[in-house]
Amino acid sequence: MVFKLFSKLLGAFSAGTAVACALKCAISEENPLQAATSIIQQSLVKWNDNWDRRDVLSLIKPDKKKKVSDKEMEEKKAELKPTATRNIFLIRHGRYYSNEGVDEKRILTTFGLVQANLVGQRLKDLNLDFSKITHSTMTRAKETSKEIEKYFPDVTVESSDLLREGFPIETEPPLNIDQKIIHEDGPRIEAAFRKYFHRANASQETDSYEIIVCHGNVIRYCLLRALQVPPEFWNNFVLFHCSISRVSIDPEGYVLVHSAGDIGFMPHDLMTFK
């Protein structure tokens, strides 16, 4: 029983932590379960409430010339505190001609067009009041967004170079990616995360719903960053073409991933990821 529970505890952590825990337990005279629990408690990462730099207290600029009363401080906090939740729907583009040498020729395949329409219909069926669609400026993302836009003719559409595909950070385990590419792509993708992932402004009165159409690497990286877990593991899970990943950010800055790569609405013979 102890061994089974110990194995489950090890499985919840990275390989490095698991090995360190196993080594300590192997040489420790204390109960293996107690030793494992001790290691786990020491390695827990604490949640940063001000991860988006929009915590109310961080928005209040101190006045060195005037002492602010407790009442005034509470009024200022109430003025700046958000009351709405942001909901972000991340859509990976549809299947495309990946063997083409230039982006302009990497258009959606027939499969990709069908996938894009299916995800558009799925989003429409959710019956949510979407306020904006933002897409990457790469051809496959633009074409996927265009199909989705047919279901939301009155929704504002924007494009962003920040959302273009790339390699955000070195992976774990390593993929031996050219460091120059990471150096160029990483800051841009991180900038995309900081621009689109944050709690609502105080002026936002109702919950919002936004669609972002972009790429697998960008989505996976942003999901991990939003959860405050090591982003180096972005390559360790698969996102199918036109899958839906939904993230909500509440007024306190709490992040909840409702789905990651949801593809259940897609017929089995249309599920692709390469």
Automatic annotation (TrEMBL):
It comes from Trichonephila clavata (Joro spider). Belongs to the phosphoglycerate mutase family. BPG-dependent PGAM subfamily. The lineage of its organism: Eukaryota, Metazoa, Ecdysozoa, Arthropoda, Chelicerata. CDD domains: HP_PGM_like. It is an enzyme of class 3 (hydrolase). Pfam families: His_Phos_1. Displays phosphatase activity for serine/threonine residues, and dephosphorylates and activates Pk92B kinase. Has apparently no phosphoglycerate mutase activity. The keyword Hydrolase applies. Interacts with Pk92B/ASK1. Coiled coil: none annotated. GO terms for cellular component: mitochondrial outer membrane. Its EC number is 3.1.3.16. Its main location: mitochondrion. Residues 1-22 form the signal peptide. GO terms for biological process: positive regulation of mitochondrial fission. One of its GO terms (molecular function) is protein serine/threonine phosphatase activity. The keyword Hydrolase applies. It is found in: Mitochondrion outer membrane. It comes from the Eukaryota. This is Serine/threonine-protein phosphatase PGAM5, mitochondrial.
